[in-house]
Amino acid sequence: MDNKALKLTAIAATMLDGFVPTKWTPLPPLDAGVRVLLGNDDQQLVATAQTQLDRSADIGSAAEAGRIYETMYPHADFTWPHLRAITEVDADYFDTESPTTVTLTDPLPGAPLGDVPIADTARASSLAQALATLHSAAPEPVSDAGFPVEDPSRSQFLILERLDQAASTGRVPSSLLQHWEEEFEKVALWHFLAAPIHGSLDETSVYTDQERVLALAEIGRLRVADPAIDLAAASALIDPAALPTFYEEYRNSRPRADEHVIARAELLAEFAVLDWLLEAVDSGDETAVEDAAELLRSFNEVLFGSAADEGAAAGREDETEDASPSTEASRDTTSATAAAGTDTPDVEAAITETEASDVFIPRAQSSDVSREDESEFESELGSQVSTEPTRDSEDSDDGEETGRIR
Question: Is the pLDDT of residue 131 over 60?
């Protein structure tokens, strides 16, 4: 039996006045650490011990972000974590290096995406609509609450700075470096107004059912920044065959988006491979460095072909003859950031906040990435939230009872 889950259950049972749980069920840990579903005859709550929290945002900012979401998106067709109680326990309680934050939140509907990308157009469209809603709100409530604000020039500077760092490693093909330098230095690309963004989209923060996105978790990195950041992160969660639908639905749902937002999103998605290289170099993991460099060489060949591959830049021309990526390695490179280093994952049945029958995990295989042509938009950022009417979801009992509190 999971000792940490029992400890969390004991702590959570004392956190909220009037809530006396009589049963508990361990939940998948996701990125947070330890999670348990607590319940009695009247109520269910999710207790989380943030033992593996590795984000710049703390729990306090997540709670404040939830309050701002309530203000900005009162009619949104998706939900987010609603904090009910919070406490902190000593580091030795969960054998962590620092004190652990424990939270109680309302259960989120649906289930996290997990390792299998969205392959159906219905959920791809729903995610696009959710992000369009998020990005269409006025930025003032976010900035006034003290969350970060990143203007376009700052975003461009940070990207070019990372590009210089990558060039200094000598592991990026010169033609690929030139491609990114030319694209990211285009002045017109950065003519946009920053908007509220989620800022931390991944396979654990998007909750869906068979048809649509029901909730967005990990909202503590809310900020005012380039909406293309969210679109790039979302593209890693979507099968390449469904990406055109995703982008088209975003355009239709947010007609005031700047005309280059899709182009920036596609470039940022490419750039994620380079970020992987920089992280590997910083960690000193030579195996990860080689893997990232190989992926960059493969991506370079996808974009420019073998004739254009000039090898690694800055002093590594002597290694170009040894770099011969296979045909298989050069396929699906744009989506490789989310799946790098993994084979087709084994999807395990997991206990979630809804009945198992409400959870749908498609088993589609990736297809080749096709780049979407860009269309023109009005450049003015919309200040009104564009949403669909909220659909009430039926309450469901939790999964199999695995323990009782005495």
Answer: yes
85 with 189, same domain: the answer is no
Gyration radius of the chain's alpha carbons: 22
- In a shared domain, residues 80 and 137: no
Residue 229 dihedral angles phi and psi, to the nearest 5°? -60, -45
Please tell me the distance from the alpha carbon of residue 31 to that of residue 168, in angstroms, as a whole number. Answer: 32
pTM to 2 decimal places: 0.72
User: Do the beta carbons of residue 155 and residue 225 sit within 8 Å?
Assistant: yes
Helices (H), 24-120: 59-72
Tell me how far apart the alpha carbons of residues 197 and 216 are, in angstroms, rounded to a whole number.
12
Q: What is the pLDDT of residue 164?
A: 94
Furthest C-alpha separation in the chain: 71
For 56, 80, 127, 289, 339, the CA distances from 285, given in Å and listed in that order, are 23, 36, 35, 6, 19
- Inter-CA distances, 162 with 107, 129, 169, 177, Å: 38, 31, 11, 11
Residue 119, SS3? coil
Coil, helix or strand at residue 102? strand
Residue 14 is which amino acid?
Answer: T
Residues 6 or more apart in contact with residue 71 via CB below 8 angstroms: 141
CA dihedral 12, 13, 18, 20 (to 10 degrees): 140
Domain that holds residue 47: 3-107
* 368 within some domain: no
Number of domains in the chain: 2
